[in-house]
Write a structure and sequence with these properties.
Blueprint: E1 8-9, H1 20-30, E2 34-60, E3 63-81, H2 85-98
Parallel strand pairs: 1-2
Antiparallel strand pairs: 2-3
Amino acid sequence: MGKPTPGRLVWNHSTHIPGLIPVLEALLSLASQVQTITPGRLSTVRSHSPHLRLKVSVPIRGGFKLIARKGKTAQEVFVLTDLEKGALEAAIEQAIKARR
């Protein structure tokens, strides 16, 4: 069996939270079990988050929905993966630290 194919980052939208794409690319390179990452819609929120945060929100079929937050903007991110929630959260933390 050959080496695993890398995951892919889907570009459905032209706008993203500043700094989100490099973190998602780092997540793809760190976690080989991530097949696809798709950033979703942007929304405005009331509370302010000074730094980029990624939180695992709810499980979806084949993976998890994440919420990315920075400033007063939030963005859904859909991750198709075989990872468990705890392992995905650890990989996200590594990806954020790798990009700081």
